[in-house]
Amino acid sequence: MLRACGPGPGSLLLREALALGRRGRVWQRPQGQDTGVQVHNSLTGKKEPLIVARTDAVSWYSCGPTVYDHAHLGHACSYVRFDIIRRILTKVFGCNVIMAMSITDVDDKIIRRANEMNVSPASLASLFEEEFKQDMAALKVLPPTVYLRVTENIPQIIAFIEGIIAHGHAYSTASGSVYFDLQARGDKYGRLVNVVPSAAPEPAVDSDKRHASDFALWKAAKPQEVFWTSPWGDGRPGWHIECSAMASEVFGSQLDIHTGGIDLAFPHHENEIAQSEVFHQCQQWGNYFLHSGHLHVKGNEEKMSKSLKNYITIKDFLQTFSPDVFRLFCMRTSYRSAIEYSDSTLLEAKHTLLGLTSFIEDARAYVRGQLTCGPVGEDVLWERLSITKKAVKAALANDFDTPRAVNAILDLVHQANRQLRAVSKEAGGPRSPTVFGAIISYVEQFFETVGISLANRQCVSGDSGTAALHCVVDELVRFRLKVRQYALATPGVTGAARRQQLQERQPLLEACDALRQDLATHGINIKDRGSTTSTWELLDPWTTHQKPES
Ligand SMILES: Nc1ncnc2c1ncn2[C@@H]1O[C@H](COP(=O)(O)OP(=O)(O)OP(=O)(O)O)[C@@H](O)[C@H]1O
Ligand SMILES: [Zn+2]
């Protein structure tokens, strides 16, 4: 058992533990090239300048999925958030990222599920690995440079374990298992979390490890279980060793960035660090550990999880919402914070995206000269654009503060929208297409950078939803117009008879007003021009936006 000095390793408490400071050695500031970004490094519990060995080859290891079931929105959240960070590092800060991601295709959960389904662990894992890759593609997550399957790296893992044994930090047992000896690691254990390994002997009678806190590097095969031969007998790797061995296979003894969800910080990453630093006999294997916060279902403290059966699959989600809506939803909070899933927060992201696409359409129409124009406060807009660019870059350089960056953009769009709406009432006058062209180009480029397309309204709904939704709103607005025209028209009737007729039809007008108000809450703005025309547009995204976290 491991004794934690701070709060235990439950996901939310762990974040507090990370802030408490660590037992292990002091973090060594790496030598190399400064990316210009400050990142929150779990190794120090604070923001540090991100210095990488070479900006043209940033090494990044990402713990990948255990492929025993459908991927859910919790997984989506972690991989989308890191995908956004990867794109920002690449496109804004000029880094060329080499990303390696593990695929855990053999472990207890896979073996158990395969037995339940009466299929081989290999075919079960291959099925869900393929599905995971399809889900990631549907979410527009860029594939890693390489995927690394555990089952294809068994000789490398065995060699890695032999190296740890050779350095005196692991031991094999009579039953054919190998354990990492945490007592040998001493006070160097606890680089990420304030944890002291207990020296108490293993209490379980059916286990032959020396201390309760020692963890498995190699697990002796149980009857009927899939196995590989090794110097210690038939068996399979433990969970943590796979990442140390596979990351080292690609990147050697130095790693710039290592990522995963906050639940992986302890014990998984802590154990990876112990194994790798012993194997490479180095002081600091990974320089930066970044952890993403968990996705929770609203009102539920637990993270969304397959084991807790409180999950929404990525496929189901994408029936209703688009990958761009999910991306924007993820960007509205820091990647480190917990994120609450609810229909209302998703709808809010959807409305914001609709408002942005609507602005781009209007601004484009103005640039083309299809929107009536009057004088624009051009200098003000140029200044706003310049301020926004600086604010966005500063926010992204500050631990990838996407909520702040998005708010800066929404503020710019709000200012531009106000001018656009004001000018559209006045015909004639000087035009200012260049500044609107520059704003369109910048806003589109920002969202393109993080993987969101503003090209058309199609980007906001899942699968086939948007086109149908727009037709429905068109029909509804047309129908409402007919009702209004009927309520207001009094051909051939005058005087008291006219007044009475109007009074009788008053409820129809009230119903039309109520419908307009109801639709406004969904981001749809109906505009009546007398009794002859009704048009609709999407509300300014600013009106649906939330303030960033402080
Ligand atoms: N609810 C969640 N929110 C954010 N990230 C998550 C969530 N659940 C899993 N992750 C992250 O997804 C990645 C892959 O996780 P993995 O395949 O090991 O699933 P898991 O944690 O076992 O999921 P489950 O608990 O549903 O079985 C890890 O980085 C993990 O931290
Ligand atoms: Zn890992």
Describe this structure in words.
Its EC number is 6.1.1.16. This is cysteine--tRNA ligase. Keywords: Aminoacyl-tRNA synthetase, ATP-binding, Ligase, Metal-binding, Nucleotide-binding, Protein biosynthesis, Zinc. Residues 392-429 form the Cysteinyl-tRNA synthetase class Ia DALR domain. Belongs to the class-I aminoacyl-tRNA synthetase family. With 550 residues, this protein is α/β, with parallel strands linked by helices. Helix content is 46%, strand content 15%. The protein is built from 17 helices and 17 strands. The strands form six sheets. A five-stranded parallel β-sheet has the order 6-5-4-12-13, with helices on both faces. A four-stranded antiparallel β-sheet has the order 7-8-10-11. Helix 15 (465-488) runs antiparallel to helix 17. The longest helix is centred in the middle third of the chain and has 26 residues, at 343-368. The model is unreliable at 1-21 and 544-550 (pLDDT under 50). The structure holds adenosine-5'-triphosphate (ATP) and zinc ion. Zinc ion binds next to helix 8.
Uncertain parts: 1-21, 544-550
The helix fraction, in percent, is 40-55%
The set of bound ligands, ions and cofactors reads: adenosine-5'-triphosphate, zinc ion
The total count of helices amounts to 17
For the CA atoms, what is the radius of gyration? 29 Å
Amino- and carboxy-terminal Cα gap: 38 Å
According to DSSP, the number of beta strands is 17
Order of strands across the main sheet: 6-5-4-12-13
In this structure, how is the largest beta sheet organized? 5 strands, parallel
Arithmetic mean pLDDT: 88
Shape: elongated
